[in-house]
Specification:
This protein has one domain. It has one helix and seven strands. Strands 1, 2, 3, 4, 5, 6 and 7 form a seven-stranded mixed sheet that branches. Strand 2 and strand 3 form a beta hairpin. The radius of gyration is 14 Å and the shape is globular.
């Protein structure tokens, strides 16, 4: 669990993450120009909390096969967007696009 908290702290430091309100908006956004990862949180705050990520390039949603990877270099480091597919076997599943920060080995 500690590594998850650490990962999200790094992502916040690397990206402009903010809450968006309104119909059709994202619950979370991660920006790495020209990409935008829009995350919808389902059943927020429960044990069944799940996430669906949609990745946009210059305002257009990206379509990919499961396992597709997009790496984006930012001044603070590299972000790796990975497409997991649309399958949701459980309510708490993560589907669509996800992101992780890649830190160079010293």
């Amino acid at each position: 669990m500690i590594w998850v908290v650490s990962l999200f702290r790094r992502l916040r430091a690397l990206t402009n993450r903010r809450r968006v309100l309104g119909v059709g908006g994202c619950d979370e956004e991660i920006r790495a120009a020209p990409f935008l990862l829009c995350i919808t949180v389902l059943q927020a705050g429960t044990r069944s909390e799940g996430r669906i990520g949609r990745l946009f390039l210059d305002g257009r949603e990206m379509v990919a096969d499961p396992g597709a990877v997009v790496e984006v270099d930012t001044p603070e480091g590299t972000l790796c967007f990975t497409y997991l597919g649309e399958e949701r076997p459980h309510l708490w599943s993560v589907s669509g696009w996800t992101v992780e920060a890649i830190t160079p080995e010293a």
